[in-house]
Amino acid sequence: MRTECCLIPYHSFGLPSTAEALVEVTSAEEMAEAWNLEAYRGGPRMVLGGGSNTVFVERYQGLVIVNRIKGREVIDEGGSWLLRVGAGEDWHDLVMWSLSQRIYGLENLSLIPGTAGAAPVQNIGAYGMEFASVCAHVQVLDLETGHLRLLTAEQCQFGYRDSIFKRELKDRAVILGVGIRLPKRWCPRLSYGPLRELDTPTAEMIADKVMTVRRQKLPDPRNLGNAGSFFKNPIVPDAVGRDLLSRYPQMPAYPAGEGQMKLAAGWLIEQSGLKGVTLEGVGVHAQQALVLVNHGTGTAAQLLRLAREVVARVSDRFGVVLEPEVRLLDSRGEQHWSHYAEQ
């Protein structure tokens, strides 16, 4: 247990912030014990994984519990493999390990930062697939009863960068592990972007391509603080999308369910003249406008000002309102973008 703990090493944006207290846990028992510490039961408590999608915009006035629960297990189900994975396992390391075991199906999700436990929270996705498509179950600790539960993929209520863990189960359950089911009869997913260029690829070839593209566009947080995609790709009614396409025929747009269209937030930001823009210690990345970065001296206040400027410029030009994908947490761990957006 550490008090007045610096949070810079615990989130990939690397912005200055502190927590009243921080503890790292490596088992379900330690998780339950930490959550029920008497000294912190009356105040804010939160569980943190790799911190790759989290920004502390204020001093956290409570207990941060860092999930370091590890473990990988492979179960042969006949027609598929079931991977049981501890929530504290690094996601990209898991993808690379699965390929080394000749277990295929996660290659499109290569190089996504964060832990396995964060995958269901965000319903992480890239290059034509989402975590929901391979989720068998999510193991959680029910914080009210202290019991372990297995939630099916349906019970997780997955949506675009969304799940029940952001809503009904927020602060009511902690993810301890995930179950991932991958068919033995592998079928490559090649419908998205540069993957279409591949001719009869292996899973390893797809992973290599994904990593190459991501490294070209996305900065390494170890060298340049960031949280990956800062904004969600907006989903708009078909009529709005068609109107924009009539004015901007080159605009990337994808079907997003009945009567809806998904737009590329990075393209909207770039076309708004913001790619490479710097505001004091933070900025919009020069290679990928969807990524906001910390140039080393950034602060949370500067980041919020930049995010507001991006939202305003895109709204003024395209009439589309962007929302952060990154969790922007206040002193109690609450997300209040609407509050920050209006400042």
TrEMBL record:
Its cofactor is FAD. PROSITE patterns: FAD_PCMH. The keyword DNA damage does not apply. One of its GO terms (biological process) is cell wall organization. The active site is at R161, S229, E325. GO terms for cellular component: cytosol. InterPro entries: FAD-bd_PCMH, FAD-bd_PCMH-like_sf, FAD-bd_PCMH_sub1, FAD-bd_PCMH_sub2, MurB, MurB_C, MurB_C_sf, Oxid_FAD_bind_N. One of its GO terms (molecular function) is UDP-N-acetylmuramate dehydrogenase activity. Keywords: Cell cycle, Cell division, Cell shape, Cell wall biogenesis/degradation, Cytoplasm, FAD, Flavoprotein, NADP, Oxidoreductase, Peptidoglycan synthesis. Its EC number is 1.3.1.98. It is found in: Cytoplasm. It holds the Pfam family MurB_C. Pathway: Cell wall biogenesis; peptidoglycan biosynthesis. Gene3D superfamilies: 3.30.465.10, UDP-N-acetylenolpyruvoylglucosamine reductase, C-terminal domain, Uridine Diphospho-n-acetylenolpyruvylglucosamine Reductase, domain 2. Residues 15-185 form the FAD-binding PCMH-type domain. It catalyses: UDP-N-acetyl-alpha-D-muramate + NADP(+) = UDP-N-acetyl-3-O-(1-carboxyvinyl)-alpha-D-glucosamine + NADPH + H(+). Cell wall formation. Belongs to the MurB family. This is UDP-N-acetylenolpyruvoylglucosamine reductase.
